[in-house]
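Model: Ready when you are.
Researcher: Fold this.
Model:
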Amino acid sequence: MTVPSSEDEEDGLDAAKRALAESERRYQTLFETMAQGVVYQDKNGRIISANPAAERMLGMTLEVMQGRTATDPRWRAVREDGSPFPDDERPSVRALRTGKPALGVITGFYHPELNETRWLRNDSTPELDPVDGSPVRVYSILEDITDRLKAEKAAAEASRTVVTILENVTDAFFALDKEFRYTYVNRRGEEITHKTREELLGRRVWDVYPDLIGSVFYHQYYRAMAGDGPVTFEEFYAGSQTWYRAHAYATPDGLAVYLRNITAERRAAEERAATEQRQREFMRDVLASVTNGKLHLCFSDADLPGPCPDCTGVTLTPTEGLRALRLTADEAAGAQGFSDDRRHDLVTAVSEAGMNAIVHAGGGVACVRTLPDHIVQVWIVDEGAGISVENLPRATLEKGYTTAGTLGHGMKMMLRSTDRVYLLTSPTGTTVVLEQGPNSQSPLLQNEW
């Protein structure tokens, strides 16, 4: 057996000292560079040490803090609700009093450099005497959560604002998760569905309304959920005999849907449309009667005399096309054996129709063709604003009336000069079809106005 020499013992002791020194250095480096604040207090609660992070969080140097206790009024400690923090509930005080850790305590401290309250999460842990187990020191780990709390407060406020808005909008609103379960329903949603939130939340919309499966609602909601973009549609729901306008769009959590009852709106629109149709039909009959059947007011392409021909023969512009149209019509009338007067009448009507297209719509297209029984037919099509319903009687019958500041002889001159005039007009354009035969027809009225 070999007995260690004193020299070997000294080498081992030196190595142990070096290891201890290295360990202390590492711990000191960690203490000084860690992001969390660390504060040491003695058994009386007086601060004896703090790392740089704690100095930044508390807004003072270690020299200023040393000797202070947690109950020093200069901390201006408050609870989350803003009320003063009782001295005996401070986490370091509790840890020293009970010998047990006080963890996750949120406290507001006045920061003298920033002149504001900063919010810290505090974990205080006592160090116990190995002999009697009594607390001899306490160390507190501090985390600055001020920015997080501000962000949470802002998010909560924004959420309250959104909820306030949604609860007061006139549309029903509901949110669905990715399984089409209700996650939110506003007050109007309860009213429009005649169901409480408790009856809807957590349930799949298809379970609440199984008759919607396969409907337009079903397919449009799935389309929006799939990320095809927002969808807006109107659909009738037989279950409540109600027309709805829906707007749905995908969200990170599922689907958001705005729903409006438009039954009254649809009925009013249908009534307006029916009234306008009756007015137009009445006007059509009156205009046909007072013009001895010469004026045919059309409501659709189907009312025109056959399908519209390929009107590419003559292009009408403010500077050209009108002369060529007159010449083409005159030649067609001559080829069908029209007398000079009948040819002149047709050319006069064509000139007026072409000029109307140029003046009111900036131009158009026209073509001339012949039909059986030597009928010459002239089509003039433009894309102007058309003649409004209320202006039709005056525009067609009143000499000199115009909506564009022209002489306004157009429509009445066409009626005097041709056998038949077909008129189809809308906000997207006007089609005028003139027909003339070789033989003179009956006058407009016996008195010719």
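Researcher: Now this one.
Model:
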Amino acid sequence: MSTIEESDLSEKSRKLWLKAIAALEQRNADFAINLLEALVKEEPDFLTGRKALRRAQIQKAKAGGGKKKFFGGLGAFNAKALAKKSWHDALADVEKELASDPFNVKVNNALFDLAVANEQYDLAEFALETIKEGHPEDTKSLHKLAQFHLDQDNPDKASEIFGAIVKRDPSDLVAVKGEKDATARASMRQGNWESKGGFRDMLKNEDEAKSLENASRAGMTKEQIRAQLTNGLGEYGENQNDLALVRKIGGFYEKLEEWQNAHQFYAWAHHLSEGDSALERKASQMEERASDEMIASLQAELEKLSGEEAAAKQAELDELVGARSARLTEAARERVERNPTDPQLRFELGQHLYNSGEFTEAIPHLQRARNNPHIRTRSILMLGRCYDAKGMLDMAQSQLEEALSELVTMDNTKKEVLYALAMVAEKNGDKDKYLGSLKEIYEADYGYLDVAHRVESSYAG
């Protein structure tokens, strides 16, 4: 049993899906929910539709001012009774309960257990991720999510979840050990050691084994990373076509923030992999950071100059910025042409087009990207910025408010959205929304950009 994609939908279901997307874009949550409920009943294995339904339910719950519940308000819901029903009937019962309380811990845990029992692992992950979004303080569910990722052989994700638990509760020794073990396991898999009967079996002696074990540990000093890099470069001199080794060296340079060297090794790793898109993206990111570093260096030099020297340096800087923007945009465009259905690539192209001042061209790519729940909020934020840049302030404000309605915790993304909303409100002459947005940031992060100055100066005089 597996999930289905949009291309697998029947003609009737596809029409429902398109209408639901349109309703979501128009912020008509009630209509979207009605359509999506009918859709998941007709196509219960369409996970993307179920995720969209949950997002609409969350929007409606927030708009109604309802509080997130852990266990209350479940009525006659009986998780144990689900095991006696067919997969689709049990799923329908769970959806009925989540309609009014999408973040409910007990029901989402029941959904997780039901999905695992039916080998619907993407749905199982989604159930626990929903709890994580609504109840980030619920470390019991976070532990369950981390263990699920380990069971699914996703140590990178497990390490990230364990890290979130440790950040919230540094005394949680199980999470501390879990993060360390998951990080080591991810490093071993990256080097392709597990597939060869254990990484020690690959090595010539215990000293080399210990060296690579040290490389897998998080929190190495720069001196330790440099030592590992030196060892790796020695091996590279003997074999320049070892993909795992080349990727590892790229990772060491990345940790040392030597972006140009990191770019060269990731680019070579991409070539050796015969087109691994993740390595291609990593190489592009390193090239971008190398350009950022060069631009920052030129800007620092420019501040010390005046007259003709300053004008010459400014011309050099402008040329570099323009060339960088054009190069990144063209590379992103080529990736989209090769993988036109990848929403992450659409988002990256839209972002580069925005940075190049091509606001109109960026909009359709960002609209496509926002259908992916993992990058939806970032895509809506960028759309708001595009509309702002085009002077379409009412549409910019609408997009930013939509993004804000989907954010729960005060993280960096929420601060970005609030700040952007404040700037649009200021242009619109809406002083209350302008200050209200800034004060939300001020209460959480005094040092964010110029928020403190803007808020405090509003009380002067």
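Researcher: Key takeaway?
Model: The chain has 23 helices and no strands.
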